[in-house]
Model the fold of this input.
Amino acid sequence: MSNSSRLMVQQQDEVTIVDFLDRSILDEGSIQQIGDEVQELINRAAVPKLLINFENVDHLSSAALGMLITINNRVRAKDGQLKLANISGQIFEVFSITKLDKLFQIHETVEQARAKFK
Done:
């Protein structure tokens, strides 16, 4: 497995914005690596403010959804906030069916999501 990151991470004020480099987040190895990378970001922040941008993502597996739930729980455990942005219709449907659209704060754009951080 390569050590090259599967994420592009940028810091804007207190908010850490995470973009995926992969269009499809399907295989176990990638998901594990993404989960580990995001976990590191959470560990580094006293109170994580995490914004995950799905702009580049076309496909997401159920394992990837599981990883997002884990990330959400870890962020909340540190009194942080997690917001998701730019989820395509197809992927949003999966969030909807699994009721994850109720668990996550989902915004249309990164700008809208950023504005919602306290």
Observations:
- The chain has a mean pLDDT of 94.
- Strands lie at 7-12, 15-20, 24-25, 49-53, 59-60, 81-85, 105-107.
- The domain at 7-115 is CATH 3.30.750.24 (Transcription Regulator spoIIAA).
